[in-house]
Amino acid sequence: MARTQPTIIVTGTPGVGKTSHCELLAQRTGFIHLPINQVVKERSCHDGWDEVLQCWIVDDDKLLDAIEDEVKQGGCIIDWHACDLFPQSWIDLVVVLRTDSTHLYDRLKARGYVEAKLQENLDSEIMEVLLSEARESYDAEIVVELQSGEADDIEENVERIESWIGNWKQHKSQTSE
């Protein structure tokens, strides 16, 4: 059965505003917000805790198995700092959020990130690692890069994504007739 709602990934370096974007988008659309860090913890999709980076060691296979049925139905917003492990057939839009390193540093420092984790994430953002992963893993027409430096950006970005959802639904209804 064809999906009637798209599945969207909102990705980017930790601290760019993924969760803020996803929560607002879910509130406005009624889509299911899947914060992957929470899913990993609550559904035991990990192989333990990394003491150095202070995060769960994700078991990709367990994670994909845990969310597959939900995601394939559509109407999901995947919120995670990586996107390349999700099969392209599951995904309709990949939103890569970006911010400048000054904003990012301040946000991660405020979260209490250990120095190694802070530096790894700053380097990732500066080197456009997640944007490159998205472009390598998905068709170019479904990958969009949006800036997330200021609070106003969230509202503007969510409106753009809502517009895209409307266009996706219209296109799907026209092609199914």
Explain what you see.
By secondary structure, the chain is of the alpha/beta class. Helix content is 50%, strand content 19%. The chain is built from 7 helices and 7 strands. It has a 5-stranded parallel sheet with strand order 2-5-1-6-7, sandwiched between helices. Strands 3-4 form a two-stranded antiparallel sheet. A hairpin with a 4-residue loop joins strand 3 and strand 4. The longest helix is centred in the C-terminal third of the chain and has 25 residues. The protein is globular, with a radius of gyration of 16 Å. The mean pLDDT is 94.
Helix content: 40-55%
N-to-C SSE series? EHEHEEHEEHHHEH
Number of strands: 7
List the quaternary state of the chains.
Answer: single chain
The profile of the biggest β sheet is: 5 strands, parallel
Span between N and C termini? 14 Å
Low-confidence runs (pLDDT<50, min 5 residues)?
A: none
Q: Which descriptors would you attach to this protein?
A:
177 residues; alpha/beta; five-stranded parallel beta sheet; 7 helices; globular
What's the SSE blueprint?
Layout: E1 7-11, H1 18-29, E2 32-35, H2 36-42, E3 46-50, E4 55-58, H3 60-73, E5 76-79, E6 93-98, H4 101-110, H5 115-126, H6 129-137, E7 143-147, H7 151-175
Parallel strand pairs: 1-5, 1-6, 2-5, 6-7
Antiparallel strand pairs: 3-4
Helix pairs in contact: 1-7, 4-5
How would you concisely characterize the structure shown here?
The chain contains seven helices and seven strands, in the order E-H-E-H-E-E-H-E-E-H-H-H-E-H.
